[in-house]
Amino acid sequence: MNRLCTGNDLTGALTRRQILSRFGMGLGSIALANLMGTAKVQADAGLFKQAHHEPRAKRVIFLFQAGAPSQIDLLDHKPYLNEKQGTQLPDEVRGDQRLTGMSGNQSSLPLVGSPFHFQQHGQSGAWISDLLPHTAKIADELCFIKSMVTSAINHGPGVTFMQTGSQFPGRPSMGAWLDYGLGTDNDNLPAFVVLVTKDKGGQPLVSRLWGSGFLPSQHQGVRLRAGENPVLYLNNPVGITANNKRQMLDALHKLHQLQIKTHSDPQIEAQIAQHELAFRMQSSIPAATDLSTEPEYTFKAYGEEARQPGTYAANCLLARRLAERGVRFIQLYHQGWDQHGNLPTQIPVQCGETDQASAALILDLKQRGLLDETLVIWGGEFGRTNYCQGKLTGNNFGRDHHPRCFSLWMAGGGIQGGMSYGETDPFGYNVIENPVPIHDLQATIMHLLGIDHERLTYKYQGRRFRLTDVHGQVIQNILG
Amino acid sequence: MFALPPAQVDYDRQIQPILSDRCYLCHGPDVKNRQADLRFDLEASAKHIAIVPGKPNDSEFIRRIISQDPDLHMPPADSNLALTPSEIELLKQWIAQGAPWQQHWAFVRPKQIPVPAVSNKGWPHNPIDHFILARLEQEGWTPAAETTRERLIRRVTFDLTGLPPTLKQMDDFLADKSPEGYLRVVDRLLQSDSYGERMASAWLDTARYSDTYGYQVDRDRYVWPWRDWVVRALNRNMPYDTFITQQLAGDLLPDATADQILATTFNRLHPQKVEGGSTPEEFRIEYVADRTQTFGTAFLGLTLECCRCHEHKYDPLSQADYYQFSAFFDNIDEAGLYSYFTSSVPTPTLLLTQEGQQAKITNGKEAILATQHQLQQIARERRAAFESWRRTVPGGDSNNGLIPGRIALMDFEKLIEGANQSVAGPIGRAVKLSGDDGIGLQVGNFHRSEPFSVALWMNLPDVKQRAVVFHRSRAWTDAASRGYQLLIEEGRLSASLIHFWPGNAIRIRTNRPVPINQWLHVTLTYDGSSRANGLQLFLDGKPIPCTVVRDHLNKNITGGGGDNITIGERFRDHGLTDGLVDEFQVFHRRLTTLEVAQLHDRKSLNEAIEADSITVERGDQLYEYYLNTSDPEYMACLKNLQTLRDSVNQIQDEVREIMVMRELDEPHPTYLLQRGAYDARGEQVTAKTPEFLPAFPQDAPRNRLGLAQWLTHDEHPLTARVAVNRFWQMMFGQGLVRTPEDFGRQGEPPTHANLLDYLAYDFTTHNWNVKRLLRQMVTSATYRQSSRVRASQAMDKAPRSDPENRLLSRMASYRLPAEMLRDNVLATSGLLSRQLGGPPAKPYELEVSFKPVKRDQGTGLYRRSLYTYWKRTGPAPVMMTLDASKRDVCRVRRERTSTPLQAFVLMNSPQFVEATRVLGERLLKQYGDDRESLFTDLFRILTSRRPTAQERQILINLHEQQIDYFTRYPDRATQYLKTGDALADRDIDPTKLAAIAAVTNTLIVFDEAVMKR
Asked: Which of A412, B104, B433, B491 has the fewest CB atoms in 10 Å of its CB?
């Protein structure tokens, strides 16, 4: 076992080991900490006895738009590109940026402006594409960051970087870090839940994105599946009801009690608790995922497709229900934003699937008084090029991957709504003001949850790892 | 850690870990981070100012760590590091004792350690026990009593074979009361085939074994023959030094056998990338790094990855050391991306021939050789026929008649659409290429046994670093260039036939750049031999001197799409931007020299035929022309040669390939990479080992074989310790060093340093005999102890003072690993397939994984978990829930967690539900209504011991409840029995069967069924 967070011993917070040893529990039970309710202290505190500072948010909903939505066609308004339509990307704008092997060897890189109309919205006057009418209506709730920067130019490394702070496999994901640091607010639900839009295709997602890396595996995200069994083998085998499961567990419990009588062993107690919690989860999870109790107006707000399990709209609604129940980190994935070609016909479809439900989620959280304590993030892994990949024809074009700038929005817990942060050049190629590297975004998310990103560490192979590696600065200017 | 500090502070165990963890960051090996020129990793530096031996109060070191002044206090606040009061006390005490210094224990060669004496002479069975007991006695503790014989046979059977003991094995053992009874069991287990499977399953984590490539696209790959190699090697008890030598460098052994080369697949099991648009070099470097780091973790127990970007912060490893290590693993002919459009195996590869295939290939090659001789023979004998042909051959001015075999001509006289332009050419009009718009032909899908030639006029606008003149392929990196191609590379002409670039291809390149801004006539000819010398390039009608770049092609060049020739452009490659092309011709035969000259000047061949007297050289060229175009005997033989080549190629194409290591002839240059970035090359480095470790053996080659010799040399301080520690971990749950991945200064010191050294020394001096080592462990009294926590014994402080059981005053207990939990239910139900090795199996769980795959029917559902198909982006979910390693990177330890999700898997998943039902059914058939016998056996099968009367009664009561329930709901019984493919016996009352199944399903999660006790 690793020596957890040795450096924090003196700073007031207790390590999990210390907590456990004070409660007379052995090593085997440390692992129970989050999902188990055996010792109440764990559910309350996670790794830290208290947060590093007053948290502004209790939980995160990350609406991940996988494949990288085109900022130029959605949030970063660049009329100059329309003027320059068809002309070459100037060398001095490109600088030393490496290109992907997909367009890097093209003989020409013609600039292409957005064919979609932009308007200003809300009191803040945010420029938003007509492709996002619902998002436009909540503009004053949102903080648009237009100066995101990454170093990845392909999806695998890009998404991995955004979720784990490293481009290469092996590190824990953000949700796992938060679960490890903060524990859970709900004994009967996992602290880190993943929802993937069903049947989307596009750039593949991989389960390591919500993995725990070198952290103990109970911190990994639990993917809720659309349909009968939201969690792997949650349901009893056909023919076995809750009643006979109860009988089975009671018998098991009696057998374990006999053992405890002859020799007490915390590991047996842990097993008893594990089975009891599993039994409770068999009802608490379906209760959380069952949307049938939602009133009509919910579906009006989120869209009719929210009735269909596994859609993005249904997952947004589910995210709100999980947030209500105290789930710490709710990670959505919606694939299909990788418009290398046919952007003018494809991107409206993507927006149609996501715009209304994303906005509805914000309003719904607000209405329930949850927005202040819930941090919501919408965005992808990188941006898209201002030039056309492949042939630029009259009404068709595509955009390649672009790491130097992209846009996302944040809202809720501790974020200042109705503002934009950062700026790109008129070509929409380089950031000219307030660049936000991925590690800064991650540091800010941690900060809002009351964690100093430099102090949430885990020692593995002799080194103290953290989500933000050796980087990361909190973006003070967007805090509310 | 430990409560009572011994009077004498132990630098190695108590002080150095503190210095390393809190001080080295700024006062350690890393030059860039170092402050005040002070180092605590070097005795001289530390004692120069900071530490005054014997005088803690005069030591600046102590002053600083107790200072209240934030400017002086160490460690500084912004480091987020701190010292506890007890640590400060310990440091003071150590300095007061004279601050004795030692080299880090793990970097010093283990010596032969005398076995310590103990008071309780009756307890030890072998030397291991002396070390354990001596330490316990030092604390005044006693070891636990020996566990019951039931538990012992269960424990050792799982530990050595990963399976539970059968009832018969238990009965035999319980009946055999002799002192040798247990030893006989151990020997039986070590001899069983299951032993190799059990040991291999841990090695697969270390080797990051996976049946798919990983990263994002994650296609299937064929690597399981390597897994079977591991099982075979372990079952044969291959000495550990041989085991690691073959895996690291089997290809470099003298006269390496296919089996030894196969072992090196170990190095290629890292994830590999195919995502479109990725930078190949970035990922190639990542592969080299992975091999290097896996070597570091698996064999050295060192965290080499720490010095990939900078100097190691804790251990004496520099960034140069890292790249010098990596140079050993950099020297193979590999690509950074595997092929998206084809299923080519990334090179280098080994052809794994099946029985019969090799003989056919050998025979075929002999026949080819004989035919080649025959061809030469004919060439010597046909002069007379040539002379008579010369007298009758008609002259003429038409190329067509003179140069047979042309299958395509593109003259570009017609109007050109799109971005390409029509311009003046050497013959009428030519095309000016945009570089993004290829010009397709309708021909060109040649097999590698087919001779062919391509000729064209071209005019290059500038010196191109890379540009495609023409090709027959689907893509560049996305298809590993499969096909053939003529490129410009650094201004030179480069012609290749490719199965998988770079390792399975032939390529020649002109020695000099070709001229620009002038029309050149270029011809490429190929003779169907699959050899580089079968390729020839001609410039303006004359052969042009070339260098062979690659000469290793043993698989097809067809397939993948892009079946015909394209001029001037390729998918995601550099086109021939602004280049001019004219008179593009394709021939379905190898053109002779004179024909090529004719294509260029349109007269050489005419003149040679018509001339009354010609030079000897021209005469020879004309004879060559005659043989290839007009001599029936020669042409028939040529045809025959092609047929023979084709049939050998066909067999070879069928042979499966596996990724292995093969050293390049010319060493690949390796560079130090600044910040670890693939594109930030620093100085070039050569293959070397770090200075703080033993010297490289003088006579050893500077390659992986030499590295293996260095690693397994008697002098090496780490290899044997790291290995022994991992075997200890497999038997005792945790290693003697509890950070098996880190033997460096940041790792945990061993709980029993002398025992570790004793075993390491003993291991190397007994021929690295693994079975012998394991036998020592499992026959020790230490291993045979009860695992019970003795909380109630007031006299015994051990459990409270040592909650982590570091001193092994009892046997460890923990949940069985994922594989054993699943194999247990398969074995006890009788469903388990005993097939050893073979393709991966796809049990039920795979159809509900994150990347669902179609599950198997029949045997594939019931094979040992070792064989479960492993897909990196969506690994087998039951295994993952039960804490299996993901196998993305090398892991030598699994975390053990306990979550409710595990309860779902064990109680509700079809594999477990089905197996418990089948077990219940078997017992029901055997015992009918004799419930006492039935539940006794059931309990014994699942826990290896007899139930108490109380326990049995609990089961009987549960059974009655279930009978009631299923009697009331017979439909539910029928439904319940349908889980899984195995059919329930129709002759048995479904109610009874369902009730038994439910009881079995309950007992399968009982503590003693899932825990190693």
From this structure: B491
Task: Give the Cα separation of A403 and A95 in Å (integer).
Answer: 13
Q: Are B1006 and B943 in contact (CB under 8 A)?
A: yes
Contact B80 A240 (CB under 8 A): no
Determine the 3-state secondary structure of B942 from DSSP.
helix
Which chain A residue is nearest to residue B568, measuring alpha carbons?
A: A107
End-to-end CA distance of chain A: 40
Residue positions counted in chain B: 1013
State how far the alpha carbon of B267 is from the alpha carbons of B234, B403, B444, B656, B893, in Å.
18, 51, 38, 19, 19
Half-sphere exposure of B309 (CA within 13 A, CB side): 6
State residue A46's pLDDT score: 59
Q: How far apart are CA B94 and CA B54, in angstroms?
A: 8
d(CA B826, CA B821): 9
Q: Does B401 touch chain A (CB under 8 A)?
A: no
- pLDDT at residue A196, rounded to an integer: 94
What is the ipTM score, two decimals? 0.87
Report CB contact under 8 Å: B80, A21. Answer: no
Query: Kind of pairing, strands A436-437 and A142-149?
Result: parallel
* Average pLDDT value for residue range B222-235: 98
Tell me the Ramachandran region of residue A342: left when phi exceeds 0, alpha when psi lies from -120 to 50, beta otherwise: left
- State pLDDT tens for residues B628-677: 999 999 999 999 999 999 999 999 999 999 999 999 988 889 999 998 89
Q: Tokens 């490109």 belong to which residue?
A: A94
3-state class (DSSP) for residue B482:
coil
User: Among B604, B632, B635, which Cα is nearest to B617's?
Assistant: B604
Provide, as residue numbers in chain A, all residues whose Cβ is less than 8 Å from the Cβ of B280. Answer: 101
The pLDDT tens digits of the residues spanning B453-468 come to 999 999 999 999 999 9
Q: What is the mean pLDDT of chain A?
A: 87
Q: What does the pLDDT look like over B599-611, one tens digit per residue?
A: 999 999 999 998 8
In terms of CA atoms, which chain B residue is nearest residue A237? B908
Write out the two tokens for B711.
């690693």
Contact present, A318 and A290 (Cβ < 8 Å)? no
pLDDT score of B1: 37
Question: Which of A255, A264, A277 lies nearest to residue B791, judging by beta carbons?
Answer: A264
